[in-house]
Amino acid sequence: MFFVFNLVLALSYAAESVIANVGEKLDISIEIQPTVEDYNIQIFAENLRKRPEVKEVVYVSKAEALDRFGSKYPNIISFLDHHQLTNPLPNVIRIVNYDVADNNVIISYLQEPQFSQIVNQEKLSQDIDQKTRNEKILDITRFIQRIGTWLILIFAFVGILIIFNSININIHTHKHEIHIMKLVGAKHSFIRAGFIFEGIVFAVSALLVSIGFSRFVLAYLTRNLVAIISNENLLAGLNSILWHFEERFWITLSWQMLAAVVAGILSSYLAIELYLRKKHYFNY
What we know:
By secondary structure, this protein is mainly alpha-helical. The protein folds into two domains: 26-127, Alpha-Beta Plaits, CATH 3.30.70; 136-276, no CATH class. The chain has eleven helices and three strands. The protein has helices spanning 2-24, 38-49, 62-72, 74-82, 103-110, 121-126, 128-173, 175-183, 188-226, 232-247, 249-276; strands at 28-31, 54-60, 92-97. Strands 1-3-2 form a three-stranded antiparallel beta sheet.
């Protein structure tokens, strides 16, 4: 059960990393009104940089945009020069946030009336794809988090149930010894202690075996997959698995060890407590 849990955990890490990597590329591109002076655009960009959600603000002037476009399509530049046409490209500001969840916040902020003279509101309101793609990324992220939470709860319940049944079988195997301990005056706490310790040993032993095996299998698969996968997003997911199960191995082991001990104590306590409270306890 621990081994399956670690596989699911690895897939969860990979999925979240892929989503985060995709989200970092979902920047906001806003078109500046053609009448706005370059100096005012620079001030506007600097004010955007001061917002806590904003990671990076890049101002691309229409002249710079035309140069970049002309380097790829020189025939277009020749066409404009030949017909003496002006630069048709607008000034653009590209905004990158720390979290994709803040993208729609910034878009709503830019739609406020005080920016109507700077930002092309018509283009901003028409570009519904920006908000739509942000919502899709957020929905996928929330779905993965919910699935991860439910899987953790299910695995925790099943793990406790497995240890509970193991201890319960062991209790019935040693019911005569328990009865003798009770007859000689042993307290319930003394009887519980042995089975609780046994439950902890079961859980910790299973954890150590499974996490060692999981680490080996995942490391082997990721290293071999890295060599044949060229997709940047998939590589980010694989690197996330390696990060959590190698570089952060002791942190992962520590919190899983704590969970194993709690599961062992809880399941063993429930098993022995239910047995000790049976009314037919002395009827052997």
